[in-house]
C-alpha cells in the first residue's frame, strides 16, 4: 500500500486554495506537478553546480557532465534500452517525433511510401508525419477506431503493406485513455519491414516500459508529464536506425571535425544533440525518474487505476453523463460530456470550485471529428491524487450540472 499522504507532502503546490477552495489537480495528462526533490535539484544546480558539459577540464564542467550523463543511464534503465547511446535528450515528445520524422524521412522515405498512424493521435504525432509526406511524396494512412476508442485491428491489417515504412502510434491516448495493443502492432509492422515509433507521452508516467521486450524502434517521452521539469524529454531509438539517420540539427557537440569544405559527425548520442543541452532540467529529470522508480511504477499504475475505477463508478450517478473512451484496457484518464452542456462551461464551473480539469479537443482534433463532438471534459490522475479529491470533484460536477440544466 502506498502512503499517499506522505507522497502529497512532497508536492507543495498541491497544498493551496484556488478560488477559496482546496485545489484538486486533475490535469495531470497535460502536465504533472513536481516533488520538492526536483525543485531542489534545479536550485542546487544553479547555486552550486552550473557549468557547460562535455567541454571543460575544470571541476564544475566535469561534475556537470557526469551528472548529465548519469541521467542518460537512468533513462536507459527506465525504458530498459540496450545501450545508453540509444537515449537522445530532446525538449520532449514533440521534438523527439519531429527528430525522427525529419531524419528518418531523409534516410529512408521515398515517393509512394506509406506512413500509418491512428485516429486517436495527438497533433504531435500527426503533423510531423504530414510534413514528412509533403517533403518526400509519401502517403499518410489512418487506422480507424471503434466507438469505444479501440483501434480496429482488422483495418490495421488491411492498411499494413510492403509500402508501409513507418507505423507511428501512441501507447496511451491522452484523450481517451485507451492503452493500445502496441506489442501486436509492432510484431505485425516488423513482418512487413516497417519501423514503429511509439508516442509514450502518456504511458511513461504511468506504466513500466521495456523497449527491448516491445521491440520498439523509437519511443518518445516528456519529462514534464513524469514529475520532471518542462523542456526535457528523450527519444529512445534503436542503434541500428540511429546510426543510419542523418543529424537533425547542425552545430556544436554534434560534430567530429569541421572544415569549410566538409564536416564529419560525432558518434551517438551526440550526433543528435546539437548545441548546449538543457543541463539543469536534465539533471532534475533524473530526480523525477528516481522519484517514480522509488515508489514503484507498478504501484503508481495500480493506484491510478483504483482512482479511475472509483471515479467512473461515482460518475455514473451524474445525470446525462456520457463517457468518451470506454476501451477495455485504459489508463487513468476520463473524458466525458454531460447532455445539454458544453465542456467549457463544465470546466469553468469546476474551476470556480477549485477543481482543475482540461476541456477542449486536447490536441486531438481529428479524434473529435471522429466522435462528432467539439471537445470533452477530461480528468486525469497522478500518484498524489486521492479518493477524497474525487468526492470533491463529483460534488462539484453535480453542482455544475444542476446550474447548467
Ligand atoms: N503525445 C501525446 C499522446 C500527448 O498527450 C502529448 C501532450 C504530446 C504528444 C506532446 O507532448 P509535449 O510534452 O511534447 O508537448 N499532451 C497534452 C495533453 O493531453 N494536454 O496538454 C498536453
Characterise this structure:
The protein is of the alpha/beta class and 405 residues long. It folds into 2 domains: 135 residues, Alpha-Beta Complex (Aspartate Aminotransferase, domain 1), CATH 3.90.1150; 255 residues, Aspartate Aminotransferase, domain 2 (3-Layer(aba) Sandwich). It has 14 helices and 17 strands. The strands form 5 sheets. The protein has a 7-stranded mixed beta sheet with strand order 4-10-9-8-7-5-6, sandwiched between helices. A 4-stranded antiparallel beta sheet has the order 13-14-17-16, with helices on one face. Strand 11 and strand 12 form a beta hairpin. The longest helix is centred in the N-terminal third of the chain and has 21 residues. The radius of gyration is 22 Å and the shape is globular. It starts with a helix and ends with a helix. The model has no long low-confidence stretch (mean pLDDT 97). The structure holds ligand 7TS. Ligand 7TS binds next to helix 4. The site of ligand 7TS has 17 residues, from helix 4.
The total beta strand count reads 17
Structural class, please? Answer: alpha/beta
Low-confidence stretches: none
Task: Give the overall average pLDDT.
Answer: 97
Sum up the overall morphology in one term.
globular
Give the CATH topology of the largest domain: Aspartate Aminotransferase, domain 2
What is the CATH H-level superfamily of the largest domain?
Type I PLP-dependent aspartate aminotransferase-like (Major domain)
Individual helix count: 14
List each distinct ligand once: ligand 7TS
Number of domains: 2
Helix content estimate: 40-55%
**CATH domain class of the largest domain:** Alpha Beta
Our measurement of the CA-to-CA distance between the termini, rounded to an integer number of angstroms, reads 41 Å
Strand order of the largest sheet: 4-10-9-8-7-5-6
- State Rg: 22 Å
Give a quick account of the main beta sheet: strands, pairing sense, barrel closure: 7 strands, mixed
CATH architecture classification name of the largest domain: 3-Layer(aba) Sandwich
| Beta fraction | 15-25%
